[in-house]
């Protein structure tokens, strides 16, 4: 597979990860701060998150990592509405940085 084809495939997978997590973040934000959720949703739909929304998303995904890779003996399982791995967190952070946000 060519490098370009691999990048496209990785980009698609990354985009699906970001979309999945943004949907969960927006749903949670809507329950706690409808105004911030509205601003974030507008920015997401226009592919132009504000710096505040981008930072909120970065902080949220970091705090919500649910799949730590630890066994039961090594640490607790963190329950959440979606499965979020450390790699998912890194994907969201990289996606935000690629759009010019300081994360």
From TrEMBL:
Residues 27-54 are annotated as: Disordered. Residues 28-54 have a biased composition (Basic and acidic residues). It comes from the Bacteria. This is Uncharacterized protein.
């Amino acid at each position: 597979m060519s490098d370009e084809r691999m990048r496209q495939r990785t980009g698609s997978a990354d985009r699906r990860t970001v979309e999945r997590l943004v949907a969960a973040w927006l749903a949670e934000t809507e329950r706690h701060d409808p105004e911030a959720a509205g601003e974030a949703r507008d920015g997401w739909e226009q592919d132009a998150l504000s710096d505040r929304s981008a930072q909120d998303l970065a902080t949220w995904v970091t705090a919500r990592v649910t799949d730590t890779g630890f066994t039961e003996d090594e640490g607790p399982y963190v329950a959440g509405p979606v499965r979020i791995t450390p790699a998912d967190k890194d994907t969201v952070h990289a996606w935000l940085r690629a759009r010019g946000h300081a994360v």
